[in-house]
Each structure stands twice: as C-alpha cells, then as structure tokens.
Amino acid sequence: MTETLTIKRHAVLVDRMADTLGLDLEEKVLEGLLDPMSLSDAVLRCTGCSDTKGCNLWLDAHLETGAATAPVMCRNGDIFELLKHGKRV
Questions:
Q1: How much is the pTM?
Q2: Distance CA 25, CA 44 (A)
Q3: What is the mean predicted confidence (pLDDT) over 55-84?
C-alpha cells in the first residue's frame, strides 16, 4: 500500500511540474511526443528524489507565475525541456 501511495504522490508531482512549465502531458501523449512508458518512467524517476519538500515549495512558489525551466533538483528536467521544444521522449 505504501508503494502505491508513493507512486501516486510522485505522479501528482510530475503532473504539477509539467503544468508549472506549461506542458500538458496528456496532450503530449496524444501528439505522440510522449510515450506512456516514458511517462511511467518519469514518475518512477521522481520517486527517487530526495527533496520532495523542496519540490513542493518550488511548485507552490511558481503556482501563479509558472516557470520557464524545471529546478536543478528535478530528476525529469531534461524530459520536460525536450517536450517544451517539441522533441519526442
């Protein structure tokens, strides 16, 4: 049960980060730029983050304004950057 909650919590973080960066992950999947397995991998990669508190603080700080790039600590920053430039991941 704990593993399921962890995955759900990190799925929310991945989605919030994408939203903050102006990315709609569902749209990227439909466009063929984001493979569903790559999205699952991104969530799993996020579960390895050691600074979820810092991530949540960063996301909260950018709630209204959004952001051009993910914070340095984001383990999926490279994927988000590729998607922003219309590249397939």
A1: 0.94
A2: 16
A3: 98
